[in-house]
Amino acid sequence: MKQFVVLLFSLLSLVSFNTVAQDLLSLIREKGTLVVGVKVDYPPWGFIDTDGKNSGFEIDLAEAIGKSMNVDVQFKAVSTANRFQKLNDGQVDLLIATVGDTIERRNKVNMVVPHYFRSGVTAISRKSYQIEGWEDLIGKPVCLTSGAYFNKALIRNYRIDPIILSNNRDLKIALLTNKCQAWAYDSGILFTISNQSAWRDYEIALETIMPIHWSFVTRNDADSKRLSDWLSRFLASRIRDGYVKNLAQKWSLPELDFLSQQHSNWNQIDAESKPICTIKDKANLANTFCFDSVLSLSKSDKAQAKLLDEFDTKLIAKSLIHTALFTAIVLVTASLLALLLSALTLKTPYWLGQSVFALTNVQSSIPPILMLYFTYFGAMASFQDHAQTWYASGTAIAWIILSLYTASGINNLVSTNRQSTSTLLQRISEQRLGIKSNLINLAKAAGMASVIATPNAVLVLNSVSSNSEYPFLLMTALAVFYYVEVLIFGYFIKLCLSILPENKSHPSLQIKEEKTHEPV
């Protein structure tokens, strides 16, 4: 019995030793590679340079970590919307990706302190709009980045009309084409953009609000604790020796006063010549001299526990209703336009009808998504001064292009064999299956094409889920919504087409009927 107890104790000790030995920091050193999630569209913090390599302030920080650990650094691109998911899924070991430290985010990831940078929220806009204060944006279309921590506060406090997009490229295009009157985002990157010659017609006239401090981010689990502690010690030493401040100067970053003050604070000593700021004190959030306070965006812990708060629920409901209404309007417009095109093709002089038929053949051969992007992000970019008018809005462009594409396809079906003596109603009845397919495909396309309109279900749900503890559940709900939406519209399309009388007057049908009644 004694031998059995000793053996059991030995096994448990071995298991315990292996568990400790296999924490994330040990695994990284064992495999010799640290996988870091970084931004690739956020110069000068993280971007792809002309040689196709990762470059920037945060890239240099990551490489300094790898050098101190004596491991290679592998970079993996992340976005504001997906960075926490990639971290918690184990795709990356560490995030150095412009992550602001908030109490809400600490509920699902670990924020490493001390912080390595600070920024706030401001907005860039065209000078001709003369936007001088946040109150000037009330009721105005303002571009926001999906997943940004300040989106909800801006919408609530300044009652802006949000246009939520997923990446900086689309946001820049939306601003240049005047889809937005301003782009509210991180002060650091907007100041960098405003200093570029291509943006000389734009300015930042608004004060910077909601300052937030940036953190390295690790998973909030026991396996990542040693890595987090190691990163805290590393960062404290690099702040003390001036490395972080000098690196920020190298990349011409804003907020140098903050980094200089941090450098000074962490070099302060007490009467016994001991450092005032030490990593042992990092749990004391009240000690803002060494560890900057984190930002809270919620009203209570109870609100944090909810899947969706009242604000998110209203925003999502609005986006779903908008998407469904947009789909319904496009379906009705396409149907009416198809009747008009078919009448022009069949009931006008031959030369005119043939011209309409040829044009609809060309129109239906061009993929609608390609035409949408070409028109909105290509051709419309040339009309910046008029891009806020109704006929140049994203909703109007998607509405016209999708309606015209489907109407052209239906006309091609109905107007086949122009020599036939069938009436227009008879032709529609003959092609009801093809017409139904065209309209159902339109319902599918309209839901996704609403991304260039606002608000829309895809980006609103993506924005909400990026800061939620239940992203899979929310995105599954979005998929279910689109599936149910297409089913409902498909049912009504079928119902409308079933009202049409069965065609029995078509010559081919008459011949078959006559043959079946021939005397034997």
Describe this structure in words.
- It comes from Enterovibrio coralii.
- Belongs to the bacterial solute-binding protein 3 family.
- This is Polar amino acid uptake family ABC transporter substrate-binding protein.
- Residues 1-21 form the signal peptide.
- One of its GO terms (cellular component) is extracellular region.
- With 520 residues, this protein is α/β, with parallel strands linked by helices.
- Helix 14 packs across helix 16, helix 18 (432-449) packs antiparallel against helix 20 (471-498) and helix 19 (457-466) runs antiparallel to helix 20.
- Helices cover 52% and strands 12% of the residues.
- The protein is elongated, with a radius of gyration of 30 Å.
- The protein folds into three domains: 2-116 and 215-305, Periplasmic binding protein-like II (D-Maltodextrin-Binding Protein, domain 2); 122-210, Periplasmic binding protein-like II (D-Maltodextrin-Binding Protein, domain 2, 3-Layer(aba) Sandwich), CATH 3.40.190.10; 318-500, MetI-like fold, CATH 1.10.3720.
- It is built from 21 helices and 14 strands.
- Helix 6 links the parallel strand 9 (141-145) and strand 10 (161-165).
- The model is unreliable at 14-21, 299-305, 381-392 and 505-520 (pLDDT under 50).
- Strands 8, 9, 10, 11, 12 and 13 form a six-stranded mixed beta sheet that branches. Strands 5-1-6 form a three-stranded parallel beta sheet.
Briefly summarize what is shown.
By secondary structure, the chain is α/β, with parallel strands linked by helices. The protein has 21 helices and 14 strands. The C terminus is likely disordered.
